[in-house]
Amino acid sequence: MTTTGLQVESILFPPSVKPPGATATFFLGGAGVRGLEIQGNFVKFTGIGVYLEDKAISSLAVKWKGKTAQELTDSIEFYRDIVTGPFEKFAQVTMILPLTGKQYAEKVSENCVAVWKALGIYTDADAKTIDKFLEIFRDQNFPPGSSILFTISPAGSLTISFSKDGSIPETGNAVLENDKLGEAILESMIGKHGVSPAAKQSLASRLSELMTSEAAALSKNGL
Fold first, then answer.
1. Nearest-CA neighbor of 60 among 163, 220, 206?
2. What is the bridge-based pairing of β-strands 157-163 and 147-152?
3. How far from the centroid of its chain's Cα atoms is residue 26's Cα?
4. Can you tell me the distance from the alpha carbon of 210 to that of 208, in angstroms, rounded to the nearest whole number?
């Protein structure tokens, strides 16, 4: 899959990466800043890049090819199909402002548990997974330029890795076997209430183009 890299503030997201815990190279689906309006100023906290396994394009194209970037941006279902699709995903969260692991993990856990409880799907196994998740992050600190990396497998595992210098490590720091947590983390970034509207727009724009080019290539080859 041929794509271009993206610059988000001072962070360069390369066009492709080989995520920790994955066997293949993934392409950059989209990237954008995560920030909050604080006292009238938009404060930028992190840059988020979302990478997908190559087969994501043909999987998503079944329902979404031919849609414009705006139509995809406006569709909650499109982002759900990215989050829950039968392909691997990789999310890179790179700090613009410093953050402690404890702060990050507590906020993510809180959001996940609230969603699961609202849906009535929160179990004892999930509670144990959340405890492990908090433990993995407890002693971590993330200065500007460092990254938290999530490799999300449709088979139900979440590989968590840390990078202090922008490089992508070959192996993860920890693997959690829970089919809901990886999806919930990605959903919190690009789902209905996703924290990065910029990453959502970027995904819609780039995936719309990629699905169009793949359809054109298949048609040219008579497939």
1. 206
2. antiparallel
3. 12
4. 6
Is the pTM for the entire model greater than 0.90? yes
Question: pLDDT (tens digit, 9 = 90+) per residue, 67-108?
Answer: 999 999 999 999 999 999 999 999 999 999 999 999 999 999
For residues 92 and 16, what is the distance between their CA atoms, to the nearest angstrom? 12
143-174 pLDDT, tens digit each: 999 999 999 999 999 999 999 988 999 999 99
3-state secondary structure the chain: CCCCCEEECCEEECCEECCCCCCCCEEEEEEEEEEEEECCEEEEEEEEEEEECCCHHHHHHHHHCCCCHHHHHCCHHHHHHHHHCCCCEEEEEEECCCEEHHHHHHHHHHHHHHHHHHHCCCCHHHHHHHHHHHHHHCCCEECCCCEEEEEECCCCEEEEEEECCCCCCCCCCEEEECCCHHHHHHHHHHCCCCCCHHHHHHHHHHHHHHHHHHHHHHHHCCC
66: left (phi over 0), alpha (psi -120 to 50) or beta: left
Token code pair at residue 98: 């410093």
**Dihedral angle over CA of 196, 62, 89, 208, nearest 10:** -40
121: left (phi over 0), alpha (psi -120 to 50) or beta: alpha
First CA to last CA across the chain, in angstroms?
A: 18
